[in-house]
Amino acid sequence: MNNSSYLDAGLFxxxxxxxxxxxxxxxxxxxxxxxxxxxxxxxxxxxxxxAFPLERIKEIMGMLPSKRPFDAEELMHKVQEGAxxxxxxxxxxxxENNGVYYLQKNWACEQDILCHILRLLHSSPMPIPSxxxxxxxxxxxxxxxxxxxxxxxxxxxxxxxxxxxxxAAQLIRGFLTADEKKQMRxxxxxxxxxxxxxxxxxxxxxxxxxxxxRSGTCHALLNLKKDPSLEHDSSPLFADIILVxxxxxxxxxxxxxxxxxxxxxxxxxxxxxxxxxxxxxxxSIFADLVAAAQAGFALPATQLTECLRSxxxxxxxxxxxxxxxxxxxxxxxxxxxGIARVPLDLLESNRQQVYSYLFHVYKEHFISFFxxxxxxxxxxxxxxxxxxxxxxxQGDFGVxxxxxxxxxxxxKEAPRNEWWAIPLLITRSDYALQLYNGDTGILIRRTSxxxxxxxxxxxxxxxxxxxxxxxxxxxxxxxxxxxGYCLSVHKSQGxxxxxxxxxxxxxxxxxxxxxxxxxxxxxKRAITCAGSLEVIEKVIQNSARKISGLSARLKEKVSVI
Length: 561
Known about the structure:
6-stranded antiparallel β-sheet; 20 strands
């Protein structure tokens, strides 16, 4: 296969080959193998991988997205040959460390993360007293609190519903309650405003308004909100305790800046689920740290395994089979109690048929039109009882297309002069309104032929300050939002529903088993999967975890705990 064939197969895009040719442009004689190797390395980086371990090339070949079959053996040979004796023009652009290859920016990022982890591991924060541990916590939760007291940096990880956020709140409560002088300072961070608000809610229920706690998104706390490119210096973080939630969603550059900003003397607790969908950007840093910890090296860590969300053993077992890539067992469970597969052919030729079916299913679960003004609290509860999720945002069966069909169809069916309830998803945080990217609510308005918002339209959102309260916000004051009939699995992270209906169209396999695991673990009572068995099997067999050399390098640098 020549380079144009790799483009046709979808292995490379023109930018990959352009990068390789540009780097090699000063060479008198360009070897095809060097071009292929550099294009391959750039393609992996573009897909979010920090590193390319040459010894894992066969495994990586199976992960490559392709439009049509290609000669994997030939490509493997060219990449392996290209890695040998790289020309001098690659110096400073390509780094090699024990057979693992990096682009310069990825090497620098991983190196920074490694250095700051080691710095924090060897720091000596002041001992922190802690109040008596809540005996309602299970053994693992109590162990997590003890490790947070004992070590300068520790990990707390586990699946959805295992009580990570609750444990974190109890940890902070114990520290602050024992702080008789009221001098302790706590920073609570997360990559999204939604995650920060969730943790804030737990803390306010336990402690009320607490001046010693400063919370915010990673970008806000580091003063990076106005510069998402991370190109300017971030603000340092001074605190006795720094707790970071949802770490699996933090990409490598932001992780690097976060760790660099933590000053000596702080005690750091990193929380997350390494098996959920990773950041859409580069790296799976939290998963790398957990892998090093589980190997017995580098970092003290506690795993929470007792699921407190779903009592359905079938859902727990199905999620575990997906997480551990037990494909045959997971597929066998798809016709069991509480879990089902709808044999929908998610193909372009069946698009209208599938849309009509989904529209019918949705109307069975959620009433949209009312003769009298509906009760917003009841609507929000009903909205969380059933959720339609898609693994894809784009495409015929992605979130955008389905939401467009639903809103158009409801517009056509809307009775005259009635009330219309429309689910919303906030897509841009508004800190003044305390609305965050990923928040869901209900827009209530009079039926109209126009979807243009008016002064009479209002949106309702749950009030995080109280379990039963509501917040009513004029629709014209809302930040950016989209219709929320169908949510992406990415946006559903951190939420839970009674029942989920998961669309798994072709292309979902790119997101690997993590996307199905994340979707399935949103459900408390029932799961329905729609998609071909072939695609579902590929999803479970693949992994979206980004490759790096961080875990192996930590093992080299740090002795066994």
